[in-house]
Amino acid sequence: MFPAPFRLFFVAVPLLVAAGALAMAAFPRRLTSWQASGPDGRTRIEPSETRILLMRVMGVVVAGLAILMVVANFAFIP
Predict the structure, then answer these.
(1) 10 Å Cβ neighbour count for 52?
(2) Helix (H, G, I), strand (E, B) or coil at 50
(3) Rounded Cα gap, residues 15 and 2, in angstroms
(4) Residue 30: CB atoms within 10 Å
């Protein structure tokens, strides 16, 4: 049996990863839009719709895997 700080680490890190992945899935445009200064002023660089869709899908997949890791930690490390 691991001490409490190790168990907390194995739960907290996957939960933080899940939160970040869900944020990526929920707000992909806000996380990927860039502003660049060019000769004509400010330019906004936006990703394509396919990239936005793939970011949403991968965010949900990564969040699901992270939650599965939390459940597996409770199952394998009592």
Answers:
(1) 14
(2) helix
(3) 19
(4) 9
Q: Which two tokens stand for residue 35?
A: 């502003």
* Tens-place pLDDT, residues 10-39: 889 999 999 999 998 998 887 777 777 777
| pLDDT at res. 57 | 95
The CA-based angle 23-28-31, given to 5 degrees, is 80
Q: Which tokens go with 36?
A: 């660049």
Q: Where are the alpha helices (DSSP H) in the chain?
A: 4-26, 28-32, 49-76
Here the tokens at position 39 are 């000769």
* Residue reference for tokens 């970011």: 55
60 and 18 Cβ atoms separated by less than 8 Å: no
